[in-house]
Design goal:
2 domains; FAM20; manganese; phosphotransferase activity, alcohol group as acceptor; three-stranded antiparallel β-sheet; 312 residues; five-stranded antiparallel β-sheet; 12 strands; alpha+beta; Phosphatidylinositol 3-kinase Catalytic Subunit, Chain A, Domain 5; kinase
């Protein structure tokens, strides 16, 4: 994905964030998310503030992989020449959104928040971004509202923010009445807390799967603020007080050997390395300690029944 010739370029699929859809020489379809921020830039405001972070997509994929979840599509970094690699093979719709600012080539695409006055700009003609592998067409997805979704309104809280027994109701809802999917949601809360993603308002499963697993798509709202640990992301863990034994074992192993060290090593091989700042890497270790404390509190209260022995 980082080196194959780009054969076609078009505007991205519908959504709120800027992206482009590319077809590579091998026939693979990928989603290109452009770089918006420096590695050391800190997102302030709401925990879901800011545009998607392309480096967050890259880091999230590798974290998902080393934790053994294997529910995120492949992601790799790439630097593309917009004028020589993209513009000649782009559709007229995408080409119409190309512009120039301060001798830098830019594009603003088409999405809910996309506008000509706020394009993504390359450094000269070279734009850094992430490429996410598009799933083959035979895999159709079904979207569900995340039971611990936010209201995104300061004047109104979600039920889970006020009801500590909320998990009892979630367990009765479709399709989460299946224990596997609830445990997937717990894994996702752990994952999102580590990456700082407080924007998981929807989730996807494979449509034809009778015992669906939660897919970890769209991880761009991650690694925004290394100084802030958004505790509300762990609400599913705190309220349900269960976790896969496999997940707990893996987390304890990385707590001993250093999650930041493992991530630093795997991310060093990406074409746009360094992917994360040292502050974001250090935040992984700190947040892992927080997760351990939450799970240990559950074990103290409810015993070993907190740890569920089931397959992924």
């Amino acid at each position: 994905m980082s080196t194959a010739k780009i054969k076609k370029a078009d505007i991205g699929y519908k959504g709120t964030q800027l992206k482009a859809r590319l077809v590579l020489e091998g026939g693979q379809m990928v989603v290109f998310k452009p770089k918006w921020y420096r590695r050391d830039e800190v997102m302030t405001g709401n925990p879901y503030s800011g545009k998607d972070r392309h480096n967050g997509e890259i880091a999230a994929f590798h974290l998902n992989r080393i934790l053994g979840f294997n529910r995120a599509p492949l992601v790799a970094g790439r630097r593309v020449n917009l004028l020589t690699e993209v513009f000649p093979v782009a559709t007229p719709t995408l080409n119409a959104t190309f512009t120039s600012q301060n001798n830098n080539t830019c594009f603003y695409g088409k999405c809910y928040y996309c506008k000509p006055s706020d394009p993504a700009c390359a450094e000269g003609d070279i734009m850094e971004g992430s490429l996410t592998l598009w799933l083959p067409a035979k895999y159709t997805l079904q979207r569900w509202k995340h039971p611990w979704a936010r209201t995104y309104r300061s004047s109104k809280k979600a039920r889970w923010e006020e009801d500590d027994a909320y998990c009892d109701e979630v367990k009765k809802t479709h399709p989460i009445e299946r224990q596997r999917l609830l445990l997937d949601i717990i894994d996702t809360a752990v994952f999102d807390y580590l990456i700082g993603n407080a924007d998981r308002h929807m989730f996807e499963t494979f449509e034809a799967d009778q015992d669906p697993m939660l897919l970890l798509l769209d991880n761009g709202k991650s690694f925004g603020n290394p100084y802030w640990d958004e505790g509300s992301i762990l609400a599913p863990v705190k309220q349900c007080c269960i976790i896969r034994n496999q997940t707990w074992t893996i987390l304890q192993e990385f707590k001993e050997r250093g999650l930041s060290d493992a991530m630093r090593q795997v991310l060093s091989h990406d074409p746009v390395s360094p992917v994360l700042s040292e502050l974001h890497l250090q935040a992984l270790d700190r947040r892992l300690i927080d997760i351990s404390e939450v799970v240990n509190a559950c074990i103290t209260e409810k015993g070993q029944a907190v740890l569920i022995d089931v397959l992924w």
